[in-house]
Amino acid sequence: MNMSDxxxxxxxxxxxxKHTAIELLNLDFEVLGTVRNKSLIEQTKHTISKYAPxxxxxxxxxxxxxxxxxxxxxxxxxxxxxxxxxxxMKVSNDRxxxxxxxxxxxxxxxxxxxxxxxxxxxxxxxxxxxxxxxxRSNPYTFGENDWTDENWIEGVSDYFxxxxxxxxxxxxxxxxxxxxxxxxxxxxxxxxxDALDKKGGTSIExxxxxxxxxxxxxxxxxxxxxxxxxxxxxxxxxxxxxxxxGRRLIVGKEVKKLVELSQIMxxxxxxxxxxxxxxxxxxxxxxxxxxxxxxxxxxIPDLGIMMQTDTTYAEDLLGLKFKGAKDCISENAKSVVxxxxx
Length: 342
Prior knowledge:
Elements: E1 6-10, H1 15-26, E2 30-35, H2 41-49, E3 57-61, H3 70-74, E4 79-82, H4 99-115, E5 120-124, E6 140-141, H5 158-176, E7 183-188, E8 190-192, H6 202-211, E9 218-219, E10 222-227, H7 228-237, E11 248-251, E12 254-257, H8 258-268, E13 280-281, H9 283-292, E14 307-308, H10 312-318, H11 325-338
Parallel strand pairs: 1-2, 1-4, 2-3, 4-5, 5-7, 6-14, 7-11, 8-10, 9-13
Antiparallel strand pairs: 10-12
């Protein structure tokens, strides 16, 4: 493997990014991971070392809001995976709050990648950039050509807006340079699976709260379930893959309601069966809760409506078969318990 098979991976301390680094290192790629703070390096390195060799892993401290250092870091890299993105548990009243890091950060990474003649850029987006619009049918179907409506103020909160705007900006920027085919986005749904360590993502927090008995009943909310290892493998399967240029790849297998996820957890961990919700919460209750706990706000526009999407096109392009919800959620619940998080 020569120097040219080096991958820059942004936000390597994040959950999806760590899984992606593990996949890359096990395939003998050289990985340069960016962190916004040096203090994140030791723990990240320690976690990754349990699952992959780390002799080809290095780190650099870079800020998505500052130009300094990006060109130097990207200079020797053939591939760039921009995974870093803010995903807070709480919803801010300021819809624009996450835009600087999400949008300016993405542009900074893309601009430097093009200046340094990177071969391929893979950006982690989300189905939240695709499915939120007013007046959807029930059930409703969305796919690769759909975009969340940024102007829907009530329905599109800070996180949804940041993912949508960042991805749109990425495509517009690459098109303006005539390099659309150098870019691929990976668009997972709710990401679940092996937590790896105690620094899990926001979706792990929901599993933890379910297992702790925090919810007496589950909101009537359904989402495409994506296994974190499938998401990581999808990033890696884009490398040198001529078919994925200019595509938005939806990663995930099945849409499940929260109450169904709860049943899967109860089956996987019978000792927690009493704690997890067995019933669905009336929509007005979720709205009431959202006044006290802003993390419930994100679900309100989708309460009671089922999404549908066909991801076989992404499986075909990537040469992968995505994991079903059952395996993914069971693995998530078991890893959360094993790590002592409940």
